[in-house]
Amino acid sequence: MIRFEALTKTFGAFAALGPLDLRITTERVVAIIGPSGCGKTTLLRVLAGLDAPSAGRVVIDEEPIEGPRPDIGVVFQEPRLMPWLSVRENVALGVWDAPKAKRTAAVDAAIERVGLSRFAGVLPRQLSGGMAQRVGIARALVGEPRLLLLDEPFGALDPLTRLGMQDHLLEIVGTAVPTTIIITHDIDEALVLGDRVIVLHGPPARIARSIDVDLPRPRLRTSPAFGTLKAELLDDLVTHVAAAV
């Protein structure tokens, strides 16, 4: 269980978040969408323990998040790979403090999980954009986190690669991670990936809507039910942006 309890974040006089109250329980994938600048990335950074809340707190299974934790994996929009390290060495950064034998086994398993075993020894410059992002996902998964956070992880990819990565992510998190929270601007992506979609308005970021996506997988973007949910979310976002102008 993840709870946001009266969560707020300010930077000087600027209010970026909240107050937010939210509970995530049985959903495997939660997608958070909202217009640019509404506070999505700030929320993710607080969840990851990278920024401390100004008030309130985030709790995972009754344990407050009070800083970066090994049981929370983070994937950013850019892979952020060390260019002088191989794929295997980049993934190993996620378990740098583990005993060597355990580290080797965990790294090999994570690389296999994202389908890059044949490329374990190559450098990042030899990878495509999608492959590089898969390395970033493997690095986040190698420590077997109970929470995986993704901040626009496929935003820099071409449309076809992005579709493939969405399917690949669902295969991974379906067996490896109890809870995944993904930040995205893409309504289709949110509906394809999420068991629940949360719409933020802001700043400061506040929850405008929460929708349970009760559609069978794999989800067809051309289905009437998918189109209905997409229209609802799009209308909500467009209405907010128009009101803010």
Written description of the protein model:
Strands 6-7-8-3-9-10 form a 6-stranded mixed sheet, with helices on both faces. The mean pLDDT is 88. The protein is of the alpha/beta class. A hairpin with a 2-residue loop joins β4 and β5. The chain is built from 7 helices and 10 strands. α3 packs across α4 and α4 packs parallel to α5.
Describe the global form.
globular
Number of extended strands: 10
- Biggest sheet layout: 6 strands, mixed
Question: What is the H/E order?
Answer: EEEHEEEHHHEHEHEEH
* Helix share bin: 25-40%
Sequence stretches where pLDDT stays below 50 over 5 or more residues: none
Essential attributes:
245 residues, alpha/beta, four-stranded antiparallel β-sheet, 36% helix
SSE arrangement:
Blueprint: E1 2-11, E2 14-24, E3 29-33, H1 40-47, E4 55-60, E5 63-64, E6 72-75, H2 87-92, H3 100-113, H4 129-141, E7 147-151, H5 159-176, E8 179-183, H6 187-193, E9 196-201, E10 206-212, H7 224-244
Parallel strand pairs: 3-8, 3-9, 6-7, 7-8
Antiparallel strand pairs: 1-2, 1-4, 4-5, 9-10
Concise overview:
The chain is built from seven helices and ten strands. It has helices at residues 40-47, 87-92, 100-113, 129-141, 159-176, 187-193, 224-244; strands spanning 2-11, 14-24, 29-33, 55-60, 63-64, 72-75, 147-151, 179-183, 196-201, 206-212.
